[in-house]
Design goal:
Helix 6 links the parallel strand 4 and strand 5. It contains 13 helices and 14 strands. By secondary structure, it is an alpha/beta fold. The chain is elongated and about 85 Å long. It has a 7-stranded parallel beta sheet with strand order 8-7-6-9-10-11-12, with helices on both faces. The chain has a 5-stranded parallel beta sheet with strand order 2-1-3-4-5. It has a two-stranded antiparallel ribbon with strand order 13-14. The protein has helices at 2-16, 38-42, 46-49, 61-68, 83-88, 107-113, 124-139, 142-151, 176-187, 210-216, 236-241, 259-267, 307-326, and strands at residues 25-28, 51-54, 72-75, 94-97, 117-118, 168-172, 191-195, 206-207, 219-222, 247-250, 273-276, 296-298, 342-343, 348-349. The two termini are 23 Å apart. The structure holds nicotinamide-adenine-dinucleotide (NAD).
C-alpha cells in the first residue's frame, strides 16, 4: 500500500513538473504463442496500467534492446532467460512466469541483480488429474483396448489390467501437485507414499526415503522441481530398485529421467510401463524410441492443458505484474529473500537519479 502511494506521488510530482509520464512496459516473450485477443481476455486490468509489448526474439542484441526498455518481463516456460538478458534489463522491476517452472530462468543471477522472479502456480489440479489419468490408463491398459477396438479384437483370457484399489503409489516431490495427486489416489483407496526432503508431515502420505518409495510402489509419479539434486533422479540405479510390475509416471519435467535407462528398463522387463507427458527435449519427436514401445503412453506436454488452469495462471500472473508495478513483492516469488533493486519510496530503480 505504502509503495502504491509512492508510485502515485511520483506520478503526481512528474505531472506537476510537466515531465512526460511514460507508462511502464511489460514485455512478453514467445510472441508466436499468443492468438489475437489473448490480452483482452486474460488481463482485463493490465492494459490500463502498462504498455504491453511482445517479442519473438530468443537472444541477441536486438532482444537486449527490447529488454532494456522493459519494466516487467513476462516469461513463457520454454524460453531461456539467461544472465545476459537479465543484465540487459536495466529498468527491470521483476520477472513473472506463465506457469510453475522457473528452471529455464537464471534465478541466481536475478537474485544477484535484485530482480524478483514470480511464478504462477495455477495448474495444480489439472496436472494432478493428468498424472492420475496416466496411472489409471496404464492400470487398465487403455492404449491396448483402444487399439483392440480399432482392430476388431475381442477380449480373451490373456488380456487383463489391474485395479488401483489397495495398490501403492509413490510420489517423488510432495508440493502442491504431489499433494493434490495424493488426495486423488486416496479416493481410489490407494496407499500413498511420498519422498520430499523438505516435507516433514502429511495426513495423506506416509513419508519415506527415496529408496523405500521405489522398492514399495506399484506406481511412481514424479512431482518434484527440477534442480541439481533431482536432475536424472530416475536413473539406472533407481529404476533397478523399482518392482518389475511397477509403472513410472512423469508429468513434471523430462530432465528428471534418464530416458535411455528408462528405455532399457521398459524393454528388458525392469519395470512394467510408463506414462510420460514431459520429455528431455521438447517438443518430443514422433520417432522418439520411447513413443514406439507398447508399454508406454506418451503425450507431448499437453495432457494437463485445461482452459480453467490457463485462465487461473493468467489471473495469477496479472496479479503479480500489478503487485510489482504497485511496489509490492508478489505472493508467489520464488526468490523471496531478494534485495529488490526497485526503490518503493522513489518509485525508481535504486541509485537511479531523480528527475
Ligand atoms: P511445488 O514447488 O509446489 O512442489 C515441488 C516440490 O518438490 C516441493 O515440495 C519441494 O520440496 C520438492 N523438492 C525439491 N527438491 C526435491 C528433491 N531433491 N527431492 C524430492 N522433492 C524435492 O511445485 P508444483 O506446483 O507441485 O510443481 C511440481 C512440478 O510439476 C514442477 O517441476 C513443475 O515444473 C511441474 N509442472 C508440470 C506441468 C505440466 O504441464 N506437465 C504443469 C505445472 C507444473
Amino acid at each position: 500500500m505504502a509503495a502504491n502511494t509512492a508510485g502515485c506521488r511520483a506520478h503526481r510530482e512528474a505531472v506537476q513538473r510537466r515531465v512526460p509520464v511514460t507508462r511502464p512496459v511489460v514485455l512478453m516473450n514467445r510472441a508466436g504463442f499468443y492468438k489475437a485477443g489473448w490480452i483482452e481476455k486474460h488481463w482485463p486490468t493490465l492494459p490500463q496500467r502498462a504498455e504491453i509489448r511482445m517479442t519473438g526474439l530468443e537472444s541477441g542484441p536486438d532482444l537486449h534492446t527490447e529488454v532494456a526498455e522493459a519494466d516487467i518481463l513476462y516469461n513463457r516456460g520454454s524460453f531461456r532467460l539467461t544472465r545476459d538478458i537479465l543484465e540487459a534489463g536495466r529498468k527491470l522491476r521483476g520477472v513473472v512466469t506463465s506457469g510453475v517452472g522457473t528452471e529455464k530462468i537464471d534465478v541466481a543471477a536475478a537474485t544477484e541483480l535484485g530482480i524478483p522472479v514470480a511464478n504462477s502456480p495455477g495448474n495444480t489440479s489439472t496436472v494432478a488429474e493428468a498424472a492420475m489419468l496416466l496411472v489409471a490408463a496404464l492400470a487398465k491398459r487403455l492404449h491396448f483396448w483402444i487399439e483392440a477396438a480399432r482392430e476388431g479384437k475381442a477380449p480373451d483370457s490373456t488380456t487383463e489390467g489391474m485395479e488401483l484399489f489397495n495398490k501403492t503409489i509413490g510420489l517423488i516431490g510432495y508440493g502442491r501437485i504431489g499433494r493434490a495427486t495424493g488426495k486423488i489416489a486416496q479416493a481410489y483407496e490407494m496407499h500413498v507414499l511420498a519422498y520430499d526432503p523438505y516435507v516433514t508431515e502429511s495426513d495423506v502420505a506416509e513419508l519415506v526415503s527415496l529408496e523405500e518409495l521405489l522398492k514399495r510402489s506399484d506406481f511412481v509419479s514424479l512431482h518434484t522441481l527440477l534442480n541439481d539434486d533431482t536432475r536424472r533422479i530416475i536413473n539406472e540405479e533407481n529404476l533397478d530398485l523399482m518392482k518389475s510390475t511397477a509403472f513410472l509416471i512423469n508429468t513434471s519435467r523430462g530432465e528428471l529421467v534418464d530416458e535411455e535407462a528408462l528405455e532399457r528398463a521398459l524393454t528388458n522387463g525392469g519395470i512394467a510401463g510408463a506414462g510420460l507427458d514431459v520429455w528431455d527435449i521438447e517438443p518430443v519427436s514422433p520417432d522418439h524410441p520411447l513413443l514406439g514401445l507398447p508399454n508406454v503412453i506418451g503425450t507431448p506436454h499437453g495432457l494437463a492443458h485445461a482452459s480453467e488452469s490457463r485462465r487461473r495462471c493468467a489471473v495469477l500472473s496479472e496479479q503479480s505484474i500489478l503487485s510489482l508495478l504497485d511496489g509490492n513483492i508478489p505472493e508467489f516469488t520464488v526468490n523471496p529473500t531478494v534485495t529488490w533493486r526497485f526503490d518503493q519510496r522513489t518509485d525508481r530503480r535504486r541509485g537511479e537519479k531523480e528527475l
